[in-house]
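S.,

As promised, the NAP run. Input:
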Amino acid sequence: MKVGFIGFGEVASTLSRGLLDQGVEVLTCVEGRSPKTVDLAKSAGVELLLTFQEVVESSDVLLSTVVPDQAVHVAKEVGKNFKGVYADLNNVSPSTVKEALSYVSPGKTTDAAMMGGIKNGLKTPIIASGPGAEIFAELNQYGMNIEVIGLEIGQASALKMLRSAYTKGVSALLFETLYAAYQMDVDEVLLGYLNQTEGPFFQESATSRIKSSAFHAKRRAQEMDEVLEFLSYYEDPLMIRAACEFFHLLPARTGIIRKKPADYREMFREVDYKGE
Ligand SMILES: NC(=O)c1ccc[n+]([C@@H]2O[C@H](COP(=O)([O-])OP(=O)(O)OC[C@H]3O[C@@H](n4cnc5c(N)ncnc54)[C@H](OP(=O)(O)O)[C@@H]3O)[C@@H](O)[C@H]2O)c1
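Predicted complex:
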């Protein structure tokens, strides 16, 4: 099995290491890419081909792991005449993934979405849908964690959007609730009571969400734009619109946070969330 990566950043380098350990041949091309990408590919030990076209011709499975706004562009560049299975793993909306995969022919296409950060390596849960999803999921025999959820392009990315609507909506709510509680010095007590109804791991996940909301606010705002646009096809989403606005306004209120805060109270001390 030969797996080719288009785009070799955090996701590709993490998955590659795991796949190489399992005896899979991994290919990429770093022609014209940044020094960071070149270093990642060299240190991962994958086979470096001279052109993206060679990667296309040599791969059984091609994984697009670029950045969201390049998903359509790369599919257009490399999808023509690809004969294997092309999986788009970028964080994009169902309409974007449909557009990107429309350029892949005659290969089979897969809409794939990571349901969490890549830090868990090959075990990171990935959901997949589309005509190529079953073949893409054969990578499970090499340690990947792919669940096929449907036959249509757009189903996996839609599920990812719905999950984002929930997790980011809750994060926005938690931030505002805890910030007010912190001002009154009752945040720890509040978390204790919430733990009783929400379960034993709630406090840890709640505080982690608050810290990463602030640290990744800019990226989250872009993701919420996509979520809002997507949900607006089905309803007039008041909560998601508010959460989207929350993430757009947050960076101005917190200032630039260069390092993920170790403690949410420490972060709240620095923040002027009143927005005056
Ligand atoms: N990281 C995560 O935990 C995570 C979780 C879920 C989904 N995702 C999605 O997975 C994708 C990859 O994420 P990542 O964290 O690996 O991103 P990343 O670290 O920023 O890496 C992106 C890679 O794509 C390359 N690239 C950009 N434009 C390209 C183009 N036109 N042609 C070829 N290569 C190109 C970049 O090269 P240069 O360095 O030269 O720009 C870099 O190697 C994203 O769409 C992201 O939304 C990531």
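Residues 6-12, 33-34, 36-37, 65-68, 70, 73-74, 89-91, 114, 117-118 surround NAP (CB under 6 Å). The first helix runs from residue 10 to 21.

- D.
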